[in-house]
Design a protein that fits this description.
About 0% of the residues lie in helices and about 45% in strands. It has no helices and seven strands.
């Protein structure tokens, strides 16, 4: 059986916030424990209109795994604007992985890979 792959897209309207900035290399928590428990991996970040968008994989990809991609906006001063995260796609037929985030034309774009769930 050939693996089924798909791409999901999330567009967020322009976000403008009056904010300072965070220091490069400074660590902070975006979502301490999300729907995937303590399994969070493959983060990707983009910056635009004074706001960051962080996307990551939640959940396990191994046998019996069920991974989903979540995102959250973060202001320039490091305030998490979406503390519960944003589910990037509602698809339940595949494990999702490797999110990539970009910004252009006033919107954020999130793409990801999806593969059939492993038995």
């Amino acid at each position: 059986m050939k693996p089924l792959a798909f791409v999901s897209v999330l567009l967020l309207a322009r976000c403008v916030f009056a904010a300072d900035s965070i220091n490069v290399g400074e660590e902070f928590v975006v979502m301490p424990i999300g729907p995937g428990g303590n399994v969070q991996a493959t983060p990707s970040v983009a910056f635009g209109s004074k706001t960051y968008l962080v996307a990551w994989r939640e959940g396990w990809l191994g046998k019996g795994g069920d991974a989903r991609i979540y995102a959250a906006r973060v202001s320039g001063d490091g305030k998490v604007l979406d503390p519960n995260g944003i589910a990037v796609t509602a698809a339940k037929v595949a494990s999702q992985e490797r999110p990539r985030v970009a910004f252009g034309g006033g919107v954020f774009l999130v793409v990801l890979a999806g593969f059939p769930q492993r038995p």
